[in-house]
Amino acid sequence: MFASRSAVLRRPCARLMSSAAPSSYKLVVIGGGAGGLAVASTLSERLGRGAVAVVEPSDVHYQQPLFTFVGAGLKPLADARRPMADVMPPDATWVRSAAAAVDPAANAVTLADGSRLAYDYLVVAAGIQLDFGAVRGLPEALGKNGVASNYSPAHVQQTFEFLQRLRHGNALFTMPATPIKCAGAPQKIAYLAEELLRERGVRDAVDIRYYSALGKIFGVDKYAAAMSRVAESRGVGVNLFQDLVAVDGPANTATFKQLGSGPDAGRTTTVSYEFLHVTPPMKPFDFLSSSPLANAAGFVDVHPHSLQHVRFPNVYSLGDCSSLPTSKTAAAAAAQSRVLKHNLLSQIEGSGAPAAEYDGYTSCPLVTAKHKLVLAEFSGYSGKPHETFFFNQANEHAFSYWLTADVLPEVYWKSMLKGTWCGPATIRKFANPTSSN
Ligand SMILES: Cc1cc2nc3c(=O)[nH]c(=O)nc-3n(C[C@H](O)[C@H](O)[C@H](O)COP(=O)(O)OP(=O)(O)OC[C@H]3O[C@@H](n4cnc5c(N)ncnc54)[C@H](O)[C@@H]3O)c2cc1C
């Protein structure tokens, strides 16, 4: 029996590891997400077929920045999803399993089935773990009675479903106290929900409230001021130092604990809701936090500029699982991939090229409505804006929306995952040569 033409076309280009495949590679990359594939594409092409293995258990790759648009009903989930086989670099070997342990002293990764992969060099790009279980009652409540989360592909479509049914009452949007990926996403969906409810004619009957465990609406002052203005103009109530600690699904209530050092610190408040969008607490994956690669917080302990591990020089990390002290985004991972690839290749090839340095660049496109967006770009190291364009990106712009909704998703599939998009540094040289903002 012959395979159909479409089945042949869908066949993975990357070599899937079989039992006969080698158990030793020049380079092993843990994680086939945004950062892992950006690195594996370039390195597998450069080092040759069979030299690079990508350890990745999932059949599906998600372009997660699109989840905000999916949750607001502006894009279908299908736009954010591709079969992993279709995005795996053709010269890499896909090891379809989860890493269960790393032994950097022995240069080996143990897989979920107990087998071991040996490596000369290791790149760790496993992302960050969603921890819904850290909020009492949340795992039971999620996906029912108005509780959704754009952070989970299993629940992102429910955000839109529940918002379409919402007619009155409180709509709550939460931001946890832990490090998270895309720190702007918890509030972006509040503004898109506000617009949706207005369009549906029920806005006046819904009280929209944003509850953040942090003490500021956004980390960088310039954008914090812009977002405070947006929240105020749209009637979104902002409650700071409020950490979601419990959800009672059957009773439709959310309990918040007051953080900070004020007189009310530690006090809890219970609020009723008709709709609850939860950004879950997040934490490093257990196989990393329990490994010798971890820092005290469980993240892969790399040098903030070179991305090389501080104790194991043949190990590098980028993206959400790394200790890099900047905001965790795909935009950051793209910029980090340029530095990591340069430094790792120069080490492997012994070229002696001067080391590249990562400056903490990250970006958070704060979508505030259809065709409006505040394009925050900054260095997490300096805390200062680092904008690509000459206009003031703290203002809501239709251009910034178009760039984020229509251009960057294509750049992600066609260029970032293929290793050719490493952030906007080159564009900035022309579009904003003085980068004075
Ligand atoms: C709702 C939402 C909105 C966002 N909006 C934006 C935005 O507008 N702009 C932006 O730049 N970023 C945004 N992000 C953040 C962005 O998606 C992440 O920062 C980015 O994907 C990080 O890349 P990564 O490679 O570190 O991790 P990921 O892309 O998450 O990839 C990690 C990979 O590792 C795999 N993995 C996990 N455990 C193991 C294991 N044990 N062994 C092997 N592999 C493993 C996973 O299956 C996954 O494929 C958003 C994220 C969300 C959820």
Automatic annotation (TrEMBL):
Presence of the UniProt keyword Membrane in the record: no
Keywords, in A-Z order: FAD, Flavoprotein, Mitochondrion, Oxidoreductase, Quinone, Transit peptide
Gene Ontology CC entries for this record: mitochondrion
Return the Gene3D superfamilies for the record.
FAD/NAD(P)-binding domain
Q: Which cofactor does it need?
A: FAD
Domain of life, per lineage: Eukaryota
Compartments, as annotated in UniProt? Mitochondrion
Q: Name one GO biological process term.
A: sulfide oxidation, using sulfide:quinone oxidoreductase
In alphabetical order, the GO MF annotations are: FAD binding; quinone binding; sulfide:quinone oxidoreductase activity
FAD/NAD(P)-binding domain span: 25-129
InterPro entries noted in UniProt: FAD/NAD-bd_sf, FAD/NAD-binding_dom, Sulphide_quinone_reductase
Task: Please give the chief subcellular localization of this protein.
Answer: mitochondrion
Keyword Transit peptide part of the UniProt annotation: yes
User: A single Pfam family, by name?
Assistant: Pyr_redox_2
Q: Which family does it belong to?
A: Belongs to the SQRD family.
Q: Per its record, how is this protein called by name?
A: Sulfide:quinone oxidoreductase, mitochondrial
Tell me which species this is from: Coemansia reversa (strain ATCC 12441 / NRRL 1564)
